[in-house]
Amino acid sequence: MQFIDLAIQQKHLGSRLQARLAHVLETNQYILGPEVAELEAKLAAFAGARHCLSCASGSVALDLALMAWNIGPGDAVFTTPMTFISTGESIARTGATPVFIDIRLNDFNLDTTHLETALEAVRTKDNRIHPLPLPARQSSLTPKLVLPVDLFGHPANYDVILRFAHTHGLKVLGDAAQGFGATYKSKHIGGCGCDATATSFFPAKPLGCYGDGGAVFTDDDDMADLLDSLRYHGRADHHDKYNNVRLGLNGRLDTMQAAVLLAKFDLFPNEIILRNIVAKRYNQLLGSVYGVLPPSFPMSDYGQSVWAQYTILLPPGVNREKVRQFMLDRGVPTAVYYPRGLFLQGAFAYLGYRSGDFPITEEATARVLSLPMHPYLEVQEQTRVIQTLADALHSL
Ligand SMILES: *Cc1c(COP(=O)(O)O)cnc(C)c1O
User: Fold this and answer.
1) Closest atom of ligand 1 relative to the 59 alpha carbon
2) Which residues of 14-47 are buried (b: 16+ CB within 10 A; e: fewer)?
3) Is the pTM of this model over 0.85?
4) Distances (CA, A) of 367 to 64, 263, 337, 338
5) Is there an atom of ligand 1 within 6 Å of 57 CB?
6) Strand 51-55, strand 214-218: pairing
7) Residue ranges in the chain modelled with pLDDT below 70
8) How far is the CA of 348 from the centre of ligand 1 (A)?
């Protein structure tokens, strides 16, 4: 059993993948060939955004959006510590300071009830009302941005976040690296009101290519022009690439990856449905496993997850590594996303956070376990996963 089975998906892709790749090899336009524009138009229409700008990775998508808004030293960016390193890394590399906000245990996403206090804490440099990073305790930072994450494919609570941000003159950048394909209150992620949304096409994401790739969605025409320039070394426009009017980077999606994504995008809407069926079956099967919490998502009127991962909470105090080894010995691979909150990562030691600052994140990182998840997982396999999990918990 595979944790994510890309080989089965490749069978379902059939000849459409070969045809797409062959076309690139015939036309020899490897950088910004016609497939890139075709993909961007399709993804923008799907998301319900005016613009989709593809780029080299999900991390670069975050970088480009932050560059377009001139986020940098002296700025504060509110985000979640329960995420992949990129989210915090992109903020910190601009020179801005990540200000972490704890999560909710039910969907692992940023707990919006802390937003007002976190903002107040930054404005007053008052560490007692919300745990602040060192730079925010020592000097007055300017709150600029909220950067929520759709962890495991579950949409963040965008209405609340957008209302908060726009009341206080902040922008919202959604990190939908795991959330593309999810729906928030009947709108697709990428089209639900964020100033920009970044996603990733890393092979393991819900819509993945065969290498690195990413995209930024926005309704803002000026920002789209800026992103188009920034991903191509700050060129003036399409016709004048050796006229560089700003500092950018090499951040383009290559044509081969766009071709792979076009082939996969044909299957994507159905794969979203299949992922939801698989998740629902897991929920039902887990009903019989004592003490394990299935993810409590979706909440009917809230939206639909794209189930990038199916992540459960083990009972408190269970030795997770022993459970994983037991399952692996019986051919069931699992993963831990993530073993440590960003605020406790060595790379962020300079922020001066301490264990205890974000207790829900610490509890989640201690108890999470992600089970095999992909659209083509079969009932028998799922039954085996859950039976093996139950056996592990019994025997330990
Ligand atoms: C995967 C991921 C990224 C980074 O995407 P890459 O394409 O690997 O650079 C950023 N944020 C989150 C939440 C992710 O899961």
Assistant:
1) 9
2) eeebeebbebbeeeeeeebbebbeebbebbbebb
3) yes
4) 34, 37, 10, 10
5) yes
6) antiparallel
7) 297-300
8) 18
